[in-house]
Amino acid sequence: MIRPARFSRHLVVASVFWALCALTASAQDIDCAECHEDVSYTSTAHPDVTCQECHTNVTIEHEDADLEPLTDDDSCGECHGGIQRTVGRSAHKGEAGCNDCHGAPHDIHLIEELASAVSPVNQIQNCGACHDDPPELIDGYLAGEHGKALLLSGLVDAPSCSDCHGDHRIMEVDKGRAPTAHQNSPEMCGECHQLLFEDWKNLSAHGLAWQEDQEGPVCVDCHASHEIIDPSTYDARHASAQNCGGCHEDYLTSFRDSFHGKAVHLGLEGGATCADCHTPHKNLPAENPLSSVHADNRLETCANCHDDITPAFATFMPHSDPTDPDDNFAVYIVWVFMTSLLIGVFVFFGVHDLLWLQRGLVGLKRGEFDEERNGGSGQYIQRFRRKNMRMHVVIITTFMLLALTGLPLKFSGAPWAQTLVDVLGGIDSTRFLHRVAAIGTFGYMIVHVLDVFIRAFIKGEKGMFWGPNSMTPQPKDLQDFVGNLKYFLYLGERPKGDRWTYFEKFDYLAVFWGVAIIGLSGLFLWFPGFFTQFLPGWTLNAAHVIHSDEALLATGFIFFFHFFHTHLRPESFPMDLVIFTGRMSLERFKAERPLEYERLVESGELEDYLVEPPNERQIRDAYLFGSIFLVIGIMLAFFIVWALLSH
After folding, report:
1. What domains, with CATH codes, occur in the chain?
2. What is the pLDDT of residues 500-545, one digit of tens each?
């Protein structure tokens, strides 16, 4: 039997309970739409959640009450308290609330829905609303492969912000526990790139160092973090050398000095870069038998690009430093010889021509050259025959084309190199034109040698190799050189010239030497597989040094010294038309080549060489043709100086 007092207490508790239930039911029965008919509710994440479950500050009489604003703790914390505590320990603490990321409260969608504010597609915009500085964060992602895969290809599984940075427990990128931290990033990337991660971790020097907690590059060092570009594209391949060079500075320098480095820099898409030889994710030291550049594997590695690979070819040194005798002594000797030759020629003729210039200017001011420059008698002598002029046109054309296409590769890092290559149609077009000009050069050299052979040994022409009509240096040339020095220094008269002067012979022999040396070395580089069938691989490194330095010697000599000897010296400035018209005024012939003039007079042959003066059309064409090549040559001379000073 229940006592009255206890019964009374039970009755009171029951009454309170039922009153609370009635109150709650009354609140739940509030029809919010009666007042808030303009509010829509489209959330798929909270389909069964009532208004009062989020709007915890609402009372029955709230329409007349001054309500406090809702906080995340008030509205979201009741259900998602654990997540809120996680956010409170993240980089977003106090910076971003639930609705900042998940969108408007009434429009929160399931995260797997594309309409969700945190779906892979939409979170780029939502995160970017705050993380827009620096611009490379979002703009870099949009331009990168991950962004293109997600937004252009529609691959919703492609990485977006939360895949790398996490969702609620986002840490600052440099925090040790952040997945994006330098030491943690390989595992982060490896969640998607599992095969590459395993190769990198176990089969590369970088991955092995990472496992030992040693300092070294990881994924983001080579591929960046946001602006990840396709590694097979030219831009990525070109940038890879710079990336690797951040640690391997010496190898970067030698790579840039190699054909591979120069050609890739100028746009050769198929040119080899670091990863082509060393592999991107299995790069091991050369002494490791598994390394792609180990002596036992190099043949296979080189064969990926070179169809004509030979065992000797595979011993070519791609990172050769010709200035280091310990690298390869034979190549070092070649470099010393070519450098000495280059410096010697430039110093010798630099001093020679500066002395000539000042003496010529003084002579011009004194009127010493007035008679030979004016040619008052109107009589002209035939100095060159038509075949000589045609040959010179071929020489000029092929030489200029070789210079235009070769100097950008020689000075690939110069500010003007890429522009010149682009003007010529790109690196592939430049290489093609260079080889066409090389064939033309071999062609005119063969024709000339055959002509000399036929004249000397078949027709029996005398004086081809000795005498006044020969290009062979002779004792008189040394006498004329000494005499010219005295003339330049106002210590004597100008020496009497003959058919060929010592500097003209040097010009001629320089072409002979140049075609042989630069041509042969060029063939080595053009057909490396053929030559390494019977020569060691270091000969390719030597050929590169010879070809490069001889090219500089040839172009520098022609543009600085030959142009001065013929066109720019005060006696003939602004242009000597003789090689284009084949004719020289009799007054100039007497002044410059009195010995040849006297010999023709004595032999009675002078009349046979007298010709009509060049007509106006011949003079106009000569000036037009000569000016084009003279301007190009002077421009290239300026480019050479610019490149040397900025190197």
Report:
1. 72-170 (no CATH), 329-646 (1.20.950.20)
2. 999 999 989 988 888 999 999 999 999 999 999 999 999 999 999 9
Average pLDDT over residues 88-104: 84
Ramachandran sector of residue 391 (left: φ over 0; alpha: ψ -120 to 50; beta: rest): alpha
Give 16-39 pLDDT, tens digit per residue: 555 555 445 444 556 777 777 788
**Residue matched to tokens 């440099």:** 174
Burial class (CB in 10 A: 0-12, 13-18, 19+), 437: buried
What are the structure tokens assigned to 240, written together? 């890879």
What pLDDT score does 74 carry? Answer: 66
CA distance 453 to 460: 9
CA dihedral defined by 254, 257, 258, 259, rounded to 10 degrees? 160
Name the residue among 634, 267, 540 with its Cα closest to residue 430: 267
Query: Which of 582, 634, 570 lies closest to 610, judged by CA?
Result: 582
Bridge-based pairing of strands 583-585 and 380-382 is: antiparallel
pTM of the shown model? 0.82
Token pair in block for residue 316: 């070519």
Q: Using CA atoms, how far apart are residues 19 and 12, in angstroms rounded to an integer? A: 10
Residues in CB range of 482: below 8 A, 6 or more apart: none
